[in-house]
UniProtKB/TrEMBL annotation:
GO terms for molecular function: CoA-transferase activity. Keywords: Transferase. InterPro entries: CoA-transferase_III_domain, CoA-Trfase_fam_III, CoA-Trfase_III_dom3_sf, CoA-Trfase_III_dom_1_sf. It comes from Allokutzneria albata. It comes from the Bacteria. It holds the Pfam family CoA_transf_3. This is CoA:oxalate CoA-transferase. PANTHER family: SUCCINATE--HYDROXYMETHYLGLUTARATE COA-TRANSFERASE (PTHR48207:SF3).
Amino acid sequence: MRAAGPLSGVRVTDLSRVLAGPYATMLLADMGADVIKIEQPGTGDETRAWGPPHAGGEAAYYLALNRGKRSLAVDLKDPRTQELVRELCVRSDVVVQNFRPGVADRLGLGATRLRAANPALVYCSVSGFGARREPADRPGFDAVIQAESGLMSVTGDEPTKVGVAITDVLAALNAAVGILGALYRRTMTGRGDHVEVSLLDSALSGMVNLAQTAIVSGEEPARHGNAHPSIVPYQAFRTRDGQIMVAAGNDTLFRSLCAALDLPALAEDPRYSSNRSRVAHRDSLVPIIQSRLSTQDSKWWVDVLLERGIPVGEIRGVRDALAAAARAGDPATFTVQHPTAGPLDLVRPGFSVSGQSFGSPPPLLGEHSAEILTELGLSPDRIAALSGAGLIGTQEKS
């Protein structure tokens, strides 16, 4: 059962692995596309081995990125099965790959060859540094991209990596947006496109105001840890029992904050009356606010500040954050019936579409190989022969 959605009827061949590509294709599956995940027999996507923890023998990392797909385990290096994958790609609406630049062409699965056979194909290439930068085959993992993009230089109290592979996530979102745009244009022109996405470009564009600040000022942006370089107060504060994030993003909110803290004189002080002056006098203002917030528990302050419309939130752990979303009436998870893990909670996407539903857990390695090859017209005997030769892997549900 695949999700109903605006991409129902769209077939995606997913040649990608690890994070950026699989996350992008999972979003397409969430919108109803039939996503066929191509994996190496025996090992599959590298994230299948990225554990612990595991659920039903599957790594949590893999489970986070592959719901709603079908798995075809096939050897891409053998000419016999390579041709089958090429045929599958040509029959698809979308192909996504994140090989190093040049590898897809060597496998006969490059954009030029496939789009020559199917001009309506939308082909998406995801890479670390982009195919046009030298060296063209430079490998790129998130940690390296965070370093090279300047993201680490503006994070933390010293250069610090963001806790999640954020450049992969940004690249996945950019890939999904580019694919959707290309599919829309195809409805008008009948022709596909080659969408190219890199983690570095995604990270650089994701630097938004900080990148523009560097351009305008000609200086490197400073690190502000859990504070904001251009807005005060907009940072973490300690309470009696934890920490909260306060985001008084304009002068009106600052005056409301002063009232909530029972510090009305701050709002009238010329050093703090405008955001520009608050930024200039950050060092004297923040300790006053910190001293006041230390007198009560986090929940007490959240209730008081929210009552006055001030953006505020507790600094939560991940489990607490998921539980809080559910308590607020809109759970961030949904449950699927996994063939080996049983009932399995997964984190839903950050958007919803009318009529959208989720019914397909992340596939076992090769779970749908026979089904997909049958759709390509292969006979049971041919499928059995390929399986016997170790060129495909099958693992049907029990």
